Amino acid sequence: MKFTRNILPLLAAIQLACAGAAYAGPYLSVGYFNGGGDVTAGPGGDIDKLDVRQITHINYSFGLIYNDEKGETNAALKDPARLHQIWLSPKVMNDLRKVPALRKHNPDLKVLLSVGGWGARGFSGAAASPESRAVFIRSAQEVIKQYGLDGIDLDWEYPINGAWGLVDATEADRDNFTALFNELRQAIGKEKLLTIAVGANAKSPTEWVDVKAIAPALDYINLMTYDMAYGTQYFNSNLYDSKQWPTVAAADKYSANFVVDNYLAAGLKPAQMNLGIGFYGRVPKRATEAGIDWDKPDAAKHPVTQPYFTATEQAVFQSLGLDLAKDTYFKYNDLVSKLLNDPQKRFTERWDDDAKVPYLTMKSTDGKDLFAISYENPKSVALKAEYIKAKGLGGAMFWEYGADDNNQLAKQLAETLGIKTQH
């Protein structure tokens, strides 16, 4: 790769910082594919165009859960006769029938159905009692058998917290979460994979999920070490803290390394964790909203940062198809075509050597550099892969494969992790 010489000192620093890790592979590359079903993930991708030759696992996303939550807007999920069972959209069912065709391109590929996702309802109710768990588990077994899947991945975001009040949750979720996975493992046996995705929030491994209790039932755990660009944080998925673009509120000071260390401290073994990598960029919320330090008294009345985007900067993103009032998310392939290759050259590529990730700046009306968006590129993906090896993690997980640009991020990940790719 073109950046090989420049990257060597960075790799050496990461290896030194993580010295002592014992696990040496083989590593996993678990790619989520947005086939459809998640309430916020957008339109599903085309599975016929999916190149699975450089990944080890694919998590097809998403199945949902029939539920009786008041906030459910999908009428298809309200059938009381199917309460707590897994629901698949017609597109998802059609795509899952194509799993044998995917395996022709990669005979070693493991295919799992992911159930849940951001804003997905039904988990708290399905896990609430032995009877409701039994209904869900039978449904999971039927889906695995019907489509010849290698296992199931559950994305319950988030037990107890309820996605910050977006979905139903109770204080019993933590124990019910553990019971669900122990019972599900017993039902599907050791020959099928059972995995989860867990949030980056510091409270996740300490209050919301009993990670040490569920670890024996799981093959691996996918850490969602991204979506950090909220509050007073600039970066979406920085490997370490930035000095040039510091976070103001201590509660917003997240990095991938910070998250990994939190889960290690909670009792997980490194080899059971996959580092999450976002195949997208995100405009920091502090660009458009006041930053609040909620640890301070009367916090809402005294913001610690002020938004720095004016109507001019927001109009630029609007012209590129991103309404910042609704979303801050740019798929990597769109970011390459629309921002990195912007014919008007309104963005400048930058690299943060502390955070170990790229970002783009744009000029304000008075000529100042404004932090516009952070993202991943082959260089940062290679560094995260080296971090995985040095830290002794099990591998990588990424969201999502349909957002890659000509497979270059997935290929870089496979190359650096030493994953044998299919030709």
Q: How do the helices and strands line up, and which of them pair or pack?
A:
Elements: H1 4-17, E1 28-34, E2 57-65, E3 86-87, H2 90-96, H3 99-105, E4 110-116, H4 123-126, H5 130-147, E5 151-155, H6 162-165, H7 173-188, E6 193-198, H8 204-208, H9 211-214, E7 220-223, H10 256-265, E8 273-278, E9 280-282, H11 311-319, E10 329-331, H12 332-340, E11 348-352, E12 357-363, E13 369-374, H13 378-391, E14 395-399, H14 408-417
Parallel strand pairs: 1-2, 1-14, 2-4, 4-5, 5-6, 6-7, 7-8, 8-14
Antiparallel strand pairs: 2-3, 9-10, 11-12, 12-13
Helix pairs in contact: 1-13, 5-7, 13-14
The biggest beta sheet is recorded as: 8 strands, parallel, barrel
The radius of gyration is: 21 Å
Q: What's the total helix number?
A: 14
The total strand number stands at: 14
Examine the coordinates and then state which fold CATH places here, giving the name of the CATH topology: TIM Barrel
Query: Ends: how far apart?
Result: 20 Å
What fraction of the residues are assigned to beta strands by DSSP? 15-25%
CATH superfamily: Glycosidases
What is the string of helix and strand elements?
HEEEHHEHHEHHEHHEHEEHEHEEEHEH
Write down the domain tally.
1
Outline type: globular
Provide a short characterization of the protein structure.
The chain has 423 residues and is α/β, with parallel strands linked by helices.
List the defining traits of the structure above.
TIM Barrel; 423 residues; alpha/beta; 18% strand; eight-stranded parallel β-barrel; three-stranded antiparallel sheet; 14 helices; 31% helix
